[in-house]
Design a protein that fits this description.
Distance between the termini: 35 Å
Order of helices and strands: HHH
Largest sheet: none
Strand content: under 5%
Number of strands: 0
Shape: extended
Radius of gyration: 15 Å
């Protein structure tokens, strides 16, 4: 398990969490035991992640609208 706690979210912190997780044999074994595949866009193909980015955008807008 890997996590970082900070006042603000930064790319450096997120990268460090993934470095520790992806280097973990336990993490990789866990994914393999559930027939999971690492989901990462290919270099130069950022559109591959666009459906999830759209979902998060909608989620945040709706969530924030209910709290404004």
């Amino acid at each position: 398990m890997s996590y970082n706690i900070s006042v603000t979210e930064t790319a450096i912190l997120a990268i460090e969490v993934f470095r520790r997780a992806y280097c973990s044999i336990g993490f990789n074994d866990f994914l393999a035991s559930r027939n999971c595949i690492h989901s990462m866009s290919h270099p130069g193909h950022s559109w591959e992640n666009s459906p999830m980015e759209r979902w998060w955008n909608d989620f945040k807008l709706i969530w924030l609208a209910k709290r404004a």
